[in-house]
Amino acid sequence: MFEILKNKGRIEGIAKVTGKAKYSAEYALPNLAHGVIVGSTIPSGFITNINIEEAKQVPGVIDVLSYWNKPEVSTFDNPEKSKKIPAFHKYFHTTKINYSDQPVALVLADTLEDASYAATLLKIDYKTEDFNVNFHESLKDLELKPFKAERGNLEAWQNADYISENEYTIAMEVHNPMEMHATIAHWTAENKLSLYDKSQGVNGVQWNLGRFFDLPEENITVNSEFVGGGFGSGLMTWFNTVAASLGAKLIERPVKVGLTRPQMFTMVGYRPTSWQKVKIGANKDEKLLGVLHHAAHNQSKYNVYSRDLSGITSKVYAFENVKRFTGYSPLNLPIPTWMRGPGDSSGTFAVESAIDELCYKMNADPVDIRLNNIAPYSMDSGKPWSTHYLNECLERGAKEIGWDDRPNQPKQLKDGDWYTGYGVGVGLWNASRRNAGASIEMKRDGNIIVRTAMTDIGTGTGQAIVNMTHEFLGIPREKISIELGNSIHPKSVTQGGSWGLSSLSGAVDAASTALKRKLADYAWGKSEVTKLDAVILSDSGVAFINDQKKSVSYQDIFQKYNLNEIYVEEYSNAGGEEEKYAFCSSAAHFYKVKVNVVTGKVKMDRMVIVVDGGKIINPQAAANQIIGAAVGGVGMAMREKQEVDLASGRLIGSDFAGYHVTVNADVPIIEVSFINKPDYNRNPAGAKGLGEVGLLGSAPAITNAIYNAIGKRFTNLPVTPDMIV
Amino acid sequence: MKPFEFHRAINSDDVFKHISTTSKYIAGGTNLLDLMKKHIHEPNTIIDLNSALSNTIEQKNDGIFLGAMTTNTKVTENTIVNKNFPLVSKAILAGASPQIRNMATTSGNLLQRTRCPYFYDTNIPCNKRKSNSGCGALNGHQRMAGIVGTSQNCVAVHPSDFCVALAALDAEVFITKTDSTTEKIPFKDFHRLPENNPEKDNNLSDNAIITGVFIPNNNFGNTVSYVKIRERDSYAFALVSVAAALEIKDDKIKKVRLASGGVAHKPWRWFEAEKFLKNKKASRDNFIKAAELIVSKTKPLPNNTFKVTLLKGAVETALMQCLTNTSNG
Amino acid sequence: MSHSKNENTFSRRFFIKTSSAFTALALVPHSIKAFYNDIKETYFTKKVVLPIYLKINGKDYNLNADSRTTLLDLLRENLNLTGTKKGCDHGQCGACTVHINGQRALSCLSLAAMMQGKEITTIEGLANGDNLHPMQEAFLEHDGYQCGYCTPGQIMSAVACVNEGHTKSIEEIKEYMSGNICRCGAYNGITNAIKSVAK
Questions:
Q1: In sequence order, what E strands does B262-298 have?
Q2: Residue numbers of chain C with a pLDDT score lower than 50
Q3: Is A666 on the interface with B (CB under 8 A)?
Q4: Number of domains in chain C
Q5: Cis peptide leading into residue A216 (ω within 30°)
Q6: Which of C95, C122, C149 is the last residue of a domain?
Q7: Cys bridge to C91: A362, A421, C56, C109, which one at CB 3.0-4.6 A?
Q8: Domain spanning A274-432+579-724, CATH architecture
Q9: Does B24 touch chain C (CB under 8 A)?
Q10: What is the CATH number of the domain that holds C64?
Q11: Which of A370-379, A457-466, C80-89 has the lowest mean pLDDT?
C-alpha cells in the first residue's frame, strides 16, 4: 500500500526514489529457490535428450525441470482442457522446437550463482529440421489477402493529378522495459498458487494460470504492485510464469525465475519486422483521393500474434477510396506481440511518409494538406467523432516549432557540413474504454483507500486515481491512498492500449458515487437524498452544498452504526455512447533536425508535440508519458533494429550493447502541450488516453525532417549514419 | 559463472604467485565479468591486481606514464594529460559511460576483447572464442566487423577508443614477465591481426602483466581531435572512429598522426596518409585527399562496405576539427 | 550468509597452497598431469566462499560470500537491499549504479570479493532518515521517472554527476547521464531534476 503523499509528485514517488518500491523479483520469500531458463540452440526440430547429470552435480542444484520430469497437471489428462492451453505455455509438454531459444529446461538451485552455472552444463541433443527466419525472402511466396471491405473504388483515383508510391520496411523492435520479466511462484497450499509477476494485468495472469492448472481463479493470487515498464511486453502471460509455477510444484519450494536481458528478446515478444507498400493520390486542390496499402509482418511458427498495419490508413484522413491487403509470414522466430502503438505505428510511418512525399511533388505544405484532409467523422464507422482536435494540434504545433521558417524545398538550410530540416507527422488512436473495477474503503478518521487490480506500469495511474477520487468526492488528496496491481482487488482490464485511465475512471466514479450514497444514507436515512450531486465530502464529514447545518461527521456515522469501515465496490464499462460516437486521441509531432552529411550524424534539435487526449488528469505525468513515447519514436526511426543471423536462426547482438535504445543524449528537452478539452461522452473523467499517440507519427516526423534537411527519402527504419552519407 | 578461487595480490611480487593456465587477472572487471557471465571465459582462479600495481600518473622528462591500474576517469581528469595529451581524454570520453570509466583501467582497456556479436554467442562458431570452430561473422552481420587486416578466420575489431589515441601518439606498453624481466612494446606492435590465430588478441606473452603505458611528449598541443561515428549519440561502440593530431608550422603540416578504431583487429594507424600529409598545407582539399588515400587501402566485407564511406567522412571531419580545436584551445 | 564476525576465519592459506601446487604442474609428466587436471576440475567446480568486510550505507558488514557473487547480487539477493536494480547484468544500462568509495560504479560488474574494505552507498542510504536527499526531492518535483525501475540508478548517477561538476549545460548533463538508460524515456524530468540541484 502506498503511503499517503506528504510530498510533491506522484503518490508512489517516494517509494520509487528511495528504492523501497518492490518489483516482482524483489520479494524475499523463505526457502526461495532460483530458476534459470535454458533455451534451445536450434531454431527448428526436436529435443531428443537432455542429460542433466553434470548440472545436478553442481552443489546447490535441486533439480532440472524439462519435458522428461514435468509435474503432473490434471489439465493434461483431459484432452478438451489440454487443447485449450496455448502451445507457448506447453514448452515443457513438447519436444518440438520452433525457434532458437525456445525454453527447454528450468534449472533449479539454492542460489542464482549455482543455477546460472548449472544451466550451462546441460547436454541437450537435438534432431534438427529445416528452418526459415528470413522475412524479406518469405515475402516472395506470401499471398496477401484483402483486409476489411474496400471503401470507394481503387480505379477512381489511378489517374489522379499526383500519385506517390513507395515501399517501407521497419526492423524488428523489442520492448525491453528496464525491469526484466520475473516471476516468483509459491504454492501456499496444494491447490493455491501465489504469484509475484511482472505483468500489465494481474487478472490475465490469474486466468491463464487457472486454465493451465485447472484451478478456479480465486485459488490464484497475482501481485504486480510495481511494474518496471511494459510497452506491451506484459500484456500476455508468458512462459516464465508457467515455468516458475511448474518448478515450484516440482520441488515444493517457492521459485523465482528472472529472465536475462538476451531472454527479454526471445521470451516476451517484440514488434515484428514489417514490409509495406503504399500508393496515394491527390488532386490539384490538395484533396487526398485514395490509398492502396499492402502490408505484412512476420509471425512465429506459433501462430499467436498477427496485427494489420493498415488499420490506421482509413481513420486519420478523408480518403474516399481505401483498399488494403495484408499478410503474415510464419517463421522460426520467437513470438511477436503488441508493442506500443501496435500495427498503427508501423502503418503511420508509411502513410505519413507517403503524404510528405506527395507534398513535395505537389509543392503543398505538409501542415495544410493534413489540416484540409482530416476525416470529418469516423469514416470506418460512419459515426461522428465525440471530440477530435487534431486540427488544433497541428495549428499550435506549427506555431511552436516556427513552421514558417521551414524551407519548402530540401537542402536550403546549410551550415558547414550540417543541414537543418523540419518535419511533421500525426498520430491517432482509438480512445477505447473497457471493463474496470474499483473499491473504496473509508476509515473512521475519514481516510480512504481506493483499490483496483489494475497495475501502474509507470504511466501514473496511481496518482490519477487520487486526482479523480478527489475530483469526484471532494475529499482532500492527503486523505486518499491507493492499492493496486493485485488480483485480490476488484478485477480490472489489463493496462495497455491507452484505455487504462479511461476505463478506470468509470469504476472510480461509480465507486465514489456508491460511497456518497452510503454516507448519505447513514447520515440522513435511506432515500432521504435523491440528488447526490448536492452531497459533498470533506476531510471530516458529509454535507449538503449550501447547507452546512446538515453536515454529519464521519466520526458520528461510524459511532452511531458501530462501523469499523465503510466499503463499496463497483464495476463500470463503456455504455450507449459507443453506439452514438467514435472516439479518438491524436497528436501532431513537429521536429527539427540537424544532419551532418559527412559523418551521417542526425541530431534531434527540437521536438514539439501537441496532443489531444481529452482532459488531462495529471499534466506532469501525462507530458512525461508523451515525452517517453517520442523517445521511443527516436529509437524506432534511428536506433532500434534487432538482427537475425540467417545461418543459425539466432538473434544477433541481442542485448543493450547490440540493440541500441535511445539514451539521454539522443534527445533534446522535448516540448509537450495538451489541448486539454474534456470528452465526457467517453467517461466521467473526460480523459481519452495517451499511451500510444506520443509514438504514432513520431518516426515519420523524423524521416520527413531529414528529407527536408538533405533531400533523401528514408523508407527503411531505422535510419543509421551509414544511410545518411 | 563457473566457481573460481579469488586472490587479492597485494604487491608486485604477489601477482605471479597464483597463476596457472586457467587463471585470469582482474582490474576494473568491466569486460572480464561480462565475459565470465557469458561463459566465454571460465577461469578457475581470479587474481585481483588493484592493490598490487600502480594507479598513479607520473610526469617524466620525455612524456607521461599511466600506471596500469589508473582508471579511465583518473586519466581524463589529470591536468598534465589534458594539457599535453588532450587526444587521450577526448578518446576516453567518447567511450563507455561515466560509471564504466570510473572502473575500467588503463591496462584493462588494452586487453578488452572484441564486441563482435558472434564472439558473444557461445552457440555460434567463433575462431576467436574457440580455435578452428569457424567464423559466424564471415557470412553474417558485419556492422561491427573490420574493413582492413581481416582474415578468413576472423573479421572482429578491437573495441577500444582509448587505444586509438595511444596508437596515434606512439605510446609504449610496459610489461613485467614471470621471471621479473621487463619489456617495452611499441603500441603499434602490441595488438595483433587475426591471421590464423584470432584467439590471440595481442602479443602479451602468457602470464606477463602490463604495468603501465608511456606516452612520449609531442608538439600537437590542442590541434587534435577524436571523431567517433556510432549508432547513437553516446554509450555505444564505434562503427568507425578517427584520432587525428597535427603539428602545423609556417602553414605546413610538420607532423601528423591518424589512427582508427572500429576498422581492424587492432587500433589502426594510417601511415601512408600521414606521409602524404607531411609538409602539405592544412587544407580541406588535402584532408579529403588523405581520406581518399585511406579508404583506398581498405578491404571491406560484403556487408560493411558502408564503413568505408563513414571512415572517409570521419577522417575528413577529424582533420578539420583539429584546426577548429587549435583555435578554440 | 552470515553477519557474525567470528566466521571470518576462512582458510585462505589452503587455497593458496593447492593453487601453487597446480601451478607447479608444468614440471610433472603428462599422464600424472592429466590425472591432476581431473582432480583440479572436480575440486574447482565447488564453490569458493570468501569472507568480506565492507561498509554499506554507513553500516559495517562482515559476510561470507560466494566468490562469484557480484556486488549487485550481494545487495539484492543476500542483503535484501533491492533498491539497486538489475537491468541487464552486463554493464549496458546503469540500473545497478551505486557509489563505491564515493564514485559512481556498476555493481553488476563488481565482484563482492573486490569490495573488501570499501564504502558502498546505495539508494537506501541516500536519504537522511525521513529527509530525502535533494536529488530525490528533485526527481519527485520534476517527475524524473515513470515506472521507477531505472530510478535508483539514475539518482545515484545524478548525485555523482553533480559532485563531479558535469552539469554546466543541458548537453553536458545529458552526455554524463547517458550511461543510465530509461526505457520509459523520462529524460526531460531526469535532466531538469539534475539541473535544478546543480544550480
A1: 268-269
A2: 1-28, 33, 37, 44
A3: yes
A4: 2
A5: no
A6: C122
A7: C109
A8: 2-Layer Sandwich (3.30)
A9: no
A10: 3.10.20.30
A11: A457-466
Of B139, B310, B316, the CB nearest to A721: B310
Q: What share of chain C is helix, strand, coil (3-state, %, to 5)?
A: 45, 15, 35
If you search the block for the grid coordinates 508523451, which residue do you land on? A626
Which residue in A117, A603, A722 is closest to B310 by CB distance? A722
Which of 3.90.550.60, 3.30.365.10, 2.70.70.10, 1.10.10.10 is the CATH number of A436-573? Answer: 3.30.365.10
Residue B61: inside a domain, yes or no? no
Supply the CATH number for residue B33's domain: 3.30.43.10
C138 and C118, same structural domain?
no
B53 in reach of chain C (CB within 8 A) = no
Beta carbons within 8 Å of A526's beta carbon, 6+ residues apart: none
| Residue B291 grid coordinates | 581520406
Here the CATH number for the domain that contains residue B287 is 3.30.390.50
* Beta-carbon pairs below 8 A across chains B and C: 114
CA distance B72 to chain C (A): 12
In 3D space, the residue among A650, B172, A178, A303 whose CA is nearest the CA of residue C85 turns out to be: A178
Name the neighbours of B, counting chains with at least 3 Cβ pairs within 8 A.
A, C
* CA-based nearest residue in chain B for residue C66: B3
Domain CATH code at residue C143: 1.10.150.120
Range of the domain at B35: 5-50
Grid cell of C21 as nine digits: 601446487
> Phi and psi at residue C104, in whole multiples of 5°?
-70, 140
The one-letter amino acid code at A694 reads G
pLDDT digits (tens, 9 = 90+) for C113-167: 999 999 999 999 999 998 999 999 999 999 999 999 999 999 999 999 999 999 9
Residue C33 is assigned to a structural domain of this protein? yes
- At residue A294, what is the residue type? H
**CA-CA distance, A483 to A12, in Å (whole number)?**
10
Above 0.95 for ipTM, yes or no?
yes
Domains A274-432+579-724 and A436-573 share a fold: yes
How far off is chain B from A437, nearest CA to CA, in Å?
Answer: 43
Tell me if B153 is assigned to some domain. Answer: no
Q: What is the bridge-based pairing of β-strands A671-674 and C119-121?
A: unpaired
Domain that holds residue C61: 1-86+109-122
> How far is Cα C184 from Cα A233, in angstroms, rounded to an integer?
13
Q: Which of C191, C178, C84 shows the shortest CA–CA distance to C145?
A: C191
Nearest residue to A715 via CA among A340, A643, A706, A143: A706
**A639, A643, A650: residue with CB nearest B124:** A650
The CATH number of the domain covering residues in A13-130+178-229+234-266: 3.90.1170.50
- Cβ C44–B98 below 8 Å, yes or no? no
What does the alpha-carbon distance between residue C146 and residue A622 come to, in Å, rounded to a whole number?
10
A665 inside 8 A of chain B by CB? yes
Check CB contact of A601 with chain B, cutoff 8 Å: yes
Q: DSSP character for B135?
A: B
Tracing cell 488516453 back to the chain, one arrives at A689
Helix pair angle (A366-373, A344-362), 10° resolution: 120
- Domain contains B313: yes
Is B59's Cβ below 8 Å from some Cβ in C? no
Residue in chain C nearest B48 by alpha carbon:
C114
Amino acid of residue B249: K
- Domain range list for chain A: 13-130+178-229+234-266, 274-432+579-724, 436-573
Give the number of other CB atoms < 10 A from CB of residue A57.
12
Residues C82 and C157 reside in one and the same domain: no
How many folded domains does chain B comprise?
A: 2
pLDDT tens readout for residues B28-71? 999 999 999 999 999 999 999 999 999 999 999 999 999 999 99
Q: Does A621 touch chain C (CB under 8 A)?
A: yes
Best probe of the B interface among C46, C178, C182, C191, by most B CBs < 10 A, is: C178
